[in-house]
């Protein structure tokens, strides 16, 4: 039996220690679980833009990534077909 870690890279997301600073230009888009809608897992296009924190690149979402909510009792996810 293969384990998930044998076939995929599992990341926990970026741990903001303080409230992210919203910006109008530059920065990066912030995906939060409230942005993942319904059982089909669509990510809405109205994501907030925040000041890019140091060392955030490792947590950057890429095409084909799957976002899971680890705190939910229901399995909601979103597949990024960017």
Could you explain the architecture of this structure?
With 82 residues, the protein is mostly beta strands. It has 1 helix and 6 strands; from the N terminus they run αββββββ. The chain has one helix at residues 4-7; strands at residues 28-30, 36-37, 42-43, 48-50, 66-68, 77-79. Strands 1-4 form a two-stranded antiparallel sheet. Strand 2 (36-37) and strand 3 (42-43) form a beta hairpin. The protein is globular and about 45 Å long. The model has no long low-confidence stretch (mean pLDDT 78).
Give a short summary of the structure.
The chain is mainly β and 82 residues long. It is 5% helix and 20% strand.
> How would you characterize the largest beta sheet?
2 strands, antiparallel
Number of contiguous helices: 1
Shape: globular
* Classification by helices and strands: mainly beta
Indicate the proportion of strand residues.
Answer: 15-25%
Topology record:
Blueprint: H1 4-7, E1 28-30, E2 36-37, E3 42-43, E4 48-50, E5 66-68, E6 77-79
Question: Which key phrases capture this entry?
Answer:
single chain; 20% strand; 6 strands; two-stranded antiparallel ribbon; 82 residues; mainly beta; globular
């Amino acid at each position: 039996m293969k384990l998930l870690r044998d076939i995929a890279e599992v990341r926990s997301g970026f741990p903001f220690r303080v409230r992210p600073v919203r910006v109008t230009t530059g920065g990066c888009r912030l995906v939060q679980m409230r942005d993942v809608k319904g059982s089909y897992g669509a990510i809405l296009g109205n994501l907030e833009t925040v000041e890019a924190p140091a060392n955030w690149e490792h947590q950057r979402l890429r095409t084909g990534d799957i976002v899971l909510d680890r705190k939910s009792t229901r399995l909601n996810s979103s597949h990024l077909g960017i």
